[in-house]
Design brief:
With 338 residues, the protein is an alpha+beta fold. Helix content is 44%, strand content 12%. Helix 3 crosses helix 7, helix 6 crosses helix 9 and helix 6 packs across helix 10. Bound molecules: glutamic acid (GLU). Glutamic acid binds next to loops.
Length: 338
C-alpha cells in the first residue's frame, strides 16, 4: 500500500475531503447507480424467486430496481423502483424500531438476544437447543418474539401507520393475497411461535402474534420506500426531509448494528466483508441499506440466492460500495492498492 498526498486532491483543494463527489453531484451518483444496475441485471438469471409462500412465486425473476436517497432528499434511481412488492423480512427493522420506541432498549433486549445466529432465517435449531430467547430480532424467531411484544401494545393499524411514517410512504398497505398465502402455509413460523410459548417467553398469544407478524411481512413497499427507510436509519433516526425524529438516535444505532451483523441472513458475514453497509433483506427481493450520514439505498430484485438474498442486489451493492467507498471500514480513498 502506498499513501498518496492526502493534503490536496487532484484540483489542489482540500474542500472535498469530507464530502465525496457523488454527494455534491447527482450525475456522479446516477452514473454509478446505472453501472450497479447493469451489474445486477447480469446475474438475475442465477437466482430464483421465493416460492415457499405460494403467492411470492408470481414475482418476475428479471424485475430489478435500485433507488438511493441522500440526506438532502434527492432521489436517484434506476429500473423498477415504483413497483410494489411485499416487504417480508425488511419489516423486522420496522417492528424492532416500533418496539424500541414503545418499550425502550432494556425491555426489548430482555426478550431477545443481539447475537448473529449463523443459521438460516427460519431455523429452529438454536432456539430449541441453545437458548430460550431467540438469537436476534432479524431472524424469524427473534422477529416473532418482538412482534409478540408489539401485539400486547398496538394493533395492526398502528403498526401500519408507523411503517408509512418510517418509509415516508402513505401508500404502504397490506397485500391481502400475500398475507393470506403466508397465513395458510406458514407452519414453520407457527412452530416457532408455539416453541417460544412452550418455553414461557412469548409475551402475547401465539395466534395473535403470528397474525400481526404475517401482516407486517405482507406490507407492500417499493425500492424507493426502502431507500427512505434506510435514510432514516442512516441519519440517526431523523428523517432529514421532514426533520421528524422518527426514532431515537440510540435506537437507530442499535438497529444499524443488528442490520450489519445479522441483516443478510446467514450471508451477513460475507456481506459485511464485501459490502460493509448495515442492510436488511427480505424474501420478497427487497433490501434496505443505511449508509451512515450519507444516504439510504433501496433494492427490489426478487431473484434470490440460496440464502434468501437478492442476487442482483448483492452484485449491485458490492459494486456501489467499492466505487463510492461506502464500506463502514473503508480505507482512505487516496490509498492506492498494489
Ligand atoms: N414472511 C417470511 C417468513 O417468515 C419472511 C422471511 C424473510 O423475508 O426472510 O418466512
Amino acid at each position: 500500500m502506498e499513501r498518496i498526498d492526502t493534503q490536496q486532491d487532484a484540483q489542489g483543494s482540500n474542500e472535498n475531503k469530507e464530502m465525496p463527489d457523488w454527494m455534491h453531484d447527482e450525475r456522479v451518483l446516477k452514473e454509478h447507480l446505472q453501472y450497479a444496475f447493469v451489474k445486477g441485471c447480469k446475474v438475475l438469471g442465477q437466482g430464483r424467486v421465493a416460492d415457499y409462500i405460494p403467492e411470492l412465486a408470481r414475482a418476475d425473476t428479471y424485475a430489478f430496481g435500485l433507488a438511493a436517497q441522500k440526506t438532502d432528499g434527492t432521489v436517484v434511481s434506476c429500473g423498477e423502483v415504483d413497483t410494489r412488492f411485499s416487504i417480508q423480512s425488511v419489516s423486522k427493522v420496522i417492528s424492532l424500531a416500533l418496539a424500541l420506541k414503545l418499550l425502550g432498549t432494556e425491555e426489548v433486549f430482555s426478550h431477545v438476544l443481539m447475537e448473529p445466529s449463523g443459521d438460516s432465517f427460519s431455523s429452529i435449531i438454536k432456539l430449541d437447543t441453545k437458548s430460550d430467547l431467540p438469537y436476534n430480532p432479524m431472524i424469524n424467531a427473534g422477529a416473532i418474539q418482538v412482534v409478540s411484544l408489539l401485539a400486547d401494545q398496538v394493533g395492526f393499524q398502528d403498526a401500519l401507520q408507523f411503517a408509512r411514517y418510517m418509509c415516508m410512504d402513505p401508500d404502504v398497505d397490506l397485500n391481502e393475497p400475500v398475507y393470506r398465502s403466508e397465513a395458510q402455509t406458514g407452519d414453520r413460523n407457527r412452530a416457532i411461535a408455539y416453541l417460544l410459548k412452550s418455553k414461557g417467553v412469548l409475551v402475547a398469544d401465539p395466534e395473535e402474534t403470528l397474525d400481526l407478524y404475517f401482516r407486517l411481512c405482507a406490507l407492500n413497499v417499493t425500492a424507493k420506500s426502502l431507500a427512505t427507510l434506510g435514510l432514516v436509519l442512516a441519519n440517526d433516526g431523523e428523517n432529514p426531509i421532514t426533520s421528524q425524529h422518527v426514532i431515537a438516535p440510540r435506537h437507530a444505532r442499535a438497529i444499524n448494528s443488528l442490520m450489519f451483523t445479522c441483516g443478510m441472513y446467514d450471508g451477513s458475514g460475507e456481506f459485511g466483508v464485501k459490502v460493509g453497509i448495515p442492510a436488511k433483506s427480505g424474501v420478497g427481493g427487497g433490501i434496505a441499506c443505511s449508509v451512515k450520514g450519507r444516504m439510504g439505498i433501496g433494492v427490489y430484485g426478487p431473484a434470490l440466492n440460496e440464502k434468501g438474498n437478492s442476487v442482483g442486489g448483492l452484485a449491485a451493492l458490492e459494486y456501489l460500495s467499492d466505487a463510492l467507498h461506502l464500506h463502514v471500514f473503508d480505507y482512505h480513498p487516496y490509498i492506492v492498492e498494489k
